[in-house]
Amino acid sequence: MSEETRQTQAELESLLARGYQHGFVTEIESDTVPPGLDEDVVRLISRKKGEPAFLTEWRLKALRHFFTMAEPHWAHLKIAPIDYQSISYYSAPKTKKDGPKSLEEVDPKLLATYEKLGVPLHERARLAGVAVDAVFDSVSVATTFKEKLAAAGVVFCPFSEAVRSHPELIEQYLGSVVPYTDNYFATLNSAVFSDGSFVYIPKGVRCPMELSTYFRINALNTGQFERTLIIADAGSYVSYLEGCSAPQRDENQLHAAVVELVALDDAYIKYSTVQNWYPGDADGKGGIYNFVTKRGECRGRNSRISWTQVETGSAITWKYPSCVLKGDGSIGEFYSVATVNNHQQADTGTKMIHVGRDTRSTIVSKGISAGHGQNTYRGLVRMLPSAQAARNFTQCDSLLMGGKCGAHTFPYVEVKNETATVEHEASTSKISEDQLFYCLARGIGAEDAVNMIVSGFCKSVFKELPMEFAVEAQNLLAVSLEGAVG
Amino acid sequence: MSALAHRIVEESTAAGFAGPAGARRRAAAAALGSVGLPTSRDENWKYASLRPLERQNFTPAPRGVTITAAVLPAPITGFARYVFVDGHFAPALSAAPGAGFAALAAAETPPAAAAAVGGDARFALLNAAFAQDGAQLKLGRGENARAEVVFVAASEAAVGASYPRLEIELAEGAQLELIERHLGAGEVAAFVNSALTVQLDRGAQLRHTRLQDLPARALSFDTLSAELHDGSAYRLLGVATGAQSARSTLLARLAGEGAGIDMALAALGEAAQVQDAYARIEHVARNTRTEQLFRGIAADRARVAFNGKVVVDAGAAGTDSRQSLRGLLAGSQAEIDVRPQLEIYTDDVRCSHGATAGKLDDAMLFYLLSRGLEPATAQRLLKWAFLADAFARIEIPDLRRQIEARLAGALHDGALKELL
Amino acid sequence: MENMKNPDTALLRIENLHAKVAGKEILNGLSLTVERGEVHAIMGPNGSGKSTLASVLAGRPGYEVTQGRVSFEGRDLLSLPPEERARAGLFLGFQYPVEIPGVNNVYLLKAALNAQRKTRGLPEVDAFEFLTLVREKMKLMRMEDSFLSRGVNEGFSGGEKKRNEILQMLVLEPQLAILDETDSGLDIDALKIVAAGVNSLRSPERACVLVTHYQRLLDYIVPDQVHVLIRGRIVKSGDKSLALELERRGYDWVAGAAA
Asked: Average pLDDT in the C43-64 region?
């Protein structure tokens, strides 16, 4: 064995040993509601958060509706039965008062958790120019850069705080994009959501920095149900990043989030996600069930919503970040990389609903399957009769590594306007042996070669991510595909 | 059991068939009763028009309705013709049985086509529950034949339904060239539910052209199930222009190594027509091939939909599959729905698909105008060109002329004939 | 000089033409007169508006004329739809001819020729006459017979597409041919063939406007006038020597002089 091969081998081994890096548990005292779901639990959550009556009522309506619904099974997923009564719907780190008023009051153990995750909350050690809201289990623990943002008129705070400080905006916009009746998991979220982030960008303001929320599930047997609402008023711009992780546990944990975006005239929201929830172990034990409803409404003329997601984690991912293009000339975009390895399953994609005239949408989806992973792209492009001269382009590619994984492509193209145009292209193939051999012949190790080829495959999506995230996403991708090629 | 399924079981029982065929019918009816007919909430049925089934009379049309030979299209040279009226064999209009053809009366029909189960094949069960006659085309090793089977719907749905049934079996190396037509004797509002099965043994070859040209008020459902063994080849061209609402279901299994299917479907919808087709091709064996092409034009308020699914099983290494689905909108209230789907469980595959929906290409249109062509002529030419990929594969000149003439009619285009 | 010409005899007269594409003004007061029997070359850097001019004259949708007028044989060209411009005898040789699979080359040629003859009150050509004519022209363009049965430009190389454009021109015999960068992407042999085709159509009755980047084409098709187009207007005109001078000194030389 040459020196070089030995080095590669060693590197490979260390990579392989690395596994899921964010799987540690933080020992912290939690205030956790006993498992179970009924009106009392919902009232309790609402009371703990000191919510106004309209919100308590809204939650209760959602809960009542939830009990009339059946779990959806149309996705290409095998889901172990979920006992919704055995989940605790609220868990918060214990604090002396309602919550930390500043970073100094945050439990040092929590700060350490985020340090370990690479999300330093101290503003001095921050990621350059990124304001962070950290959500630990069900509640927001800290938001950085509040003052600087306030000076620009930007509101960026935990959802529960926004309920108190901006109830009129919450009442106006909550559920206006994803109504509480929308779908099983969104309805559940509407009843029991605990916290999340709220963003309001005033008219004409370009948000001075990237906004970021970091979600962390820590407590055992808890679900996490955060709710994010972003409103970009006329002519404003915001780039928002979302990161996620969870400890390594043998049980499946439920994450059912809802994200609503509203873009008014000429506003532009760029929403990026790097999802790295615990995927379960190599045998498919444990891992997060990630059932998320994300939808943006381009309400204003020439508004634009762009979703970028890198999905490497979770045992099961079920999410379709979508755009409703109501405003004439509005633009919807979806850029996605989804990887599955071991026994992970993903059913993800988007919906582009074209309502207004001259609306445009672009979909770029890259799916990578390895191990026993099953990866499904599901996407709907719908041109309504009002969508005069609307256009869509979709590119959807899948890469397969190993003979036991699956890659599935289920697009829906529905056109009811004769001036609209939809183009969809897709390809599925295994990782190119020619490319692999070319890299090997140039002395590049197998694992690196795979990473290079996969990165190239995903490039058109990565380039949509803000710089810091693009690097993180590439690293995550490498980790998630470890052992994919022997 | 839904009210509809319940009614089907009752009607089937009331039709009262005795003997082994009766058993087959009862079994099919019972199976259908337990799964029920699809609704538009079923993923693979969401674009079909299923409402009219609620008030449908399922009892078969009576035997012995006579039609004149005038309703039949001109014969194609070299093809033996077999005619069925409302699903019943009409020997007077047919060639003397030969080259593997057998008209099967109910009692002779083999017991329940067990393959016809599962959600997608429910209309085949409906056929099995009611069909009285059928036809079999069975070729022995290395034999070859050319046949045209014409199914004429002559009765109003209120009088009785039509259940065409055709079983094709080609032994090793056999070759069949088949033309299958569905048409009406006059403008009858018929209910037609046909079922076809295709069995291709090692190296067998089937060339199959099917033309659905039912009257404008007819309701049509058909199910084609095909099983392909080693090295067999199935080339299928479907052209759907007729019926108020039509749904075609094609289920093919590439069960033998090196088997290949090459299918092209063209569908034209106008007025308030619904043309819906679903094709599921399952690659079971190694080195199997699929080529799938769809070209649909929706005019006026018509809905034209195609859902093409290619499934590659874990054992089907070396699969090669291509889908090209294109829809053209030619009416302000028209609708095109296309779904190219891939479900893949192994890595040694090369699969691709492309789908488009939209109007005629502006650049092409301008090019033709800049050469002095009338806008109407230019549009007509481009519509024609849009379908050309599908028709390029018709190798029988007489048939090609017939199809092109029919399409020229469907495109309301007298002038088009001039260029054929 | 130009305004001294008699407006009634000019084949093409463009006056103060302004045109926008996607809201952006590309032509900015362009004037040009082409007499019968003349060959004009329009040269200019990328983005100067050369192809826009060709498209506006042929009536391509999406090009908005905001000011000015164009007369062709004394008629208001801009009021005509594209097909009538073609039938009136104006031919655009496309820079990027579109592929139209499924529409037969020979069918298009025949339909185009008959559309034109009909406009001129001539009877349609019969199939034999037509094929004889096309074969003769194809020979000139060194095109193989198989080409006839192929789809319009379908699977053609860049050079084949350009030759096909010239073939169409030869069959249609337009009064005015506007050839938009017909020379781009051609090797020297193909260039000679194309040039021979264009030259074969030269006559005292017809005229030709060559839109090109390089003077190379003009070695084979010698122009009567050369115009330099910069930022949407003609800034300099001259004879063939102007093209040679441009080749030597570049467009900056004219642009500088024009500024």
From this structure: 91
In a domain, residue B10? The reply is yes
Residues B245 and B375 in one domain: no
pLDDT mean over C210-239: 91
Task: Decide: C28 and C231 in contact? Cβ < 8 Å.
Answer: yes
Q: What is the DSSP string of A290-357?
A: EEEEEEEEE-STT-EEEEEEEE---SEEEE--EEEE-STT-EEEEEEEEEE-TT-EEEEEEEEEE-ST
Instruction: Tell me the pLDDT tens digit for each residue of A174-222.
Output: 999 999 999 999 999 999 998 888 999 999 999 988 888 876 665 555 6
Of the residues A77, A365, A393, A412, the best mutation for testing chain B's interface (the one with the most B CB atoms within 10 Å of its CB) is A412
CA–CA separation, B227 and A416 (whole Å): 36
B216/B409 Cα distance (integer angstroms): 13
Strand partners, B309: B280, B341
Q: How far is CA A236 from the centre of its chain?
A: 23
Query: Taking the mean position of all CA atoms in its chain, how far away is CA A87?
Result: 21
Q: What is the mean pLDDT of residues A252-280?
A: 89
Determine whether the interchain pair B356/A409 forms a contact, defined as Cβ–Cβ distance below 8 Å: no
Q: Are B365 and B247 in the same domain?
A: no
State yes or no: pLDDT of A127 exceeds 50.
Answer: no
Q: How far is C126 from chain B (nearest CA, A)?
A: 13
Q: How far apart are CA C205 and CA A151, in angstroms?
A: 74
Which of B318, B322, B328 lies closest to B353 in space, CA to CA? B322
Number of domains in chain B: 2
The boundaries of the domain holding residue B384 are: 360-420
How far apart are the CA of A373 and the nearest CA of chain B, in angstroms? Answer: 10
How many percent of chain C have pLDDT more than 90? Answer: 52
Residues 6+ away with beta carbon under 8 Å from B403: B209, B211, B239, B391, B394
Encode pLDDT of B230-242 as tens digits: 999 999 999 999 9
Verify that B27 and B169 share a domain, yes or no.
Answer: yes
In the block, tokens 């009051």 appear at: A105
Is B106 a residue whose pLDDT tops 60? no
Minimum CA–CA partner of B389 in chain C? C102
B12 and B141 together in one domain: yes
Considering only the beta carbons, identify the residue of B340, B344, B359 that sits closest to A407. Answer: B344
Q: Are residues B43 and B187 in the same domain?
A: yes
- Measure the CA angle with vertex C46, ends C42 and C47; round to 5°: 95
Residue where a domain terminates, one of B211, B231, B256: B256
* Nearest residue of chain C to residue B372 (CA atoms): C83
| pTM for the structure as a whole | 0.83
- A–C touching, 3+ CB–CB pairs within 8 Å: no
Q: Is A193 helix (H, G, I), strand (E, B) or coil?
A: coil
Please report whether residue B295 resides in a domain.
no
Tens-digit pLDDT profile for residues C75-92: 999 999 999 999 999 999
One domain for residues B252 and B364: no
In a domain, residue B269? The reply is no
The beta-carbon neighbor of B355 closest among A411, A416, A418 is A411
> Would you call A415 and B327 a contact, using CB atoms and an 8 Å cutoff?
yes
Is B388 domain-assigned? yes
> Closest to C86 (Cβ–Cβ): which among B370, B381, B384?
B370
- In sequence order, the 6+-apart residues with CB closer than 8 A to the CB of A465 are A272, A274, A308, A310, A473
Q: Using the beta-carbon criterion (under 8 Å), do B345 and A406 form an inter-chain contact?
A: yes
pLDDT per position as a tens digit, A390-426: 999 999 999 998 888 999 999 999 999 999 999 999 9
Residue B269 has pLDDT above 80, yes or no: yes
Burial label for A377, CB within 10 Å (0-12, 13-18, 19+), is buried
Residue B10, pLDDT > 50, answer yes
Residues 184-223 of C with CB under 8 A from B: none
Among B223, B256, B289, give the residue marking a domain's end: B256
